[in-house]
Design brief:
Layout (H helix, E strand, L loop, with lengths): L2 H6 L2 E5 L7 H5 L3 E7 L8 H10 L9 E6 L5 H20 L12 H21 L6
Antiparallel strand pairs: 1-2, 2-3
Length: about 130
């Protein structure tokens, strides 16, 4: 993933925020919405696009566009920086390939200890029962 090319492909839009700020909120568009077109991106290889399509399927629109918003601060510039950081970290996190799990087997000693403790518990519980009279 080439972050520099990715940053040129982002589409930003300013929206009126609903957060703190009083009258300032009603006058300025401080919330930032970023749209990233995954399908036509030159910053990602085909393999990376496939991986992101699978992992981010719930966040992608039908056209393959990933949209994120940020309205945390009163400053549009800070919101823009925050949303870019979130987008890049989201993409990097979902591009990681999970390691395959190696099957492990308990050691013979661990198996013996488990069986021994089971037998001890069973003996203890059987001693709690009243004796059977026939």
């Amino acid at each position: 993933m080439d972050v520099e090319i990715l940053l040129t492909e982002l589409n930003f839009k300013g929206i009126r925020s609903s957060g703190p700020g009083g009258q300032h909120v009603n006058k300025t568009a401080s919330k930032v919405e970023v749209a990233f077109d995954l399908e036509s991106s030159r910053a990602l290889s085909d393999i990376e696009k496939d991986r992101l399509r699978d992992k981010l399927s719930s966040k992608l629109s039908a056209d393959g566009i990933l949209t994120l918003q940020c309205g945390e601060t009163r400053s549009q510039h800070r919101n823009k920086a925050i949303v870019i950081e979130r987008l890049v970290s989201l993409l990097q996190e979902n591009l990681k390939v999970a390691k395959k799990r190696k099957k492990t087997k308990p050691s013979k000693n661990a198996i013996e200890r488990r069986l021994k403790s089971k037998k001890e518990r069973a003996f203890k519980k059987s001693n709690r029962k009243p004796p059977r009279i026939e």
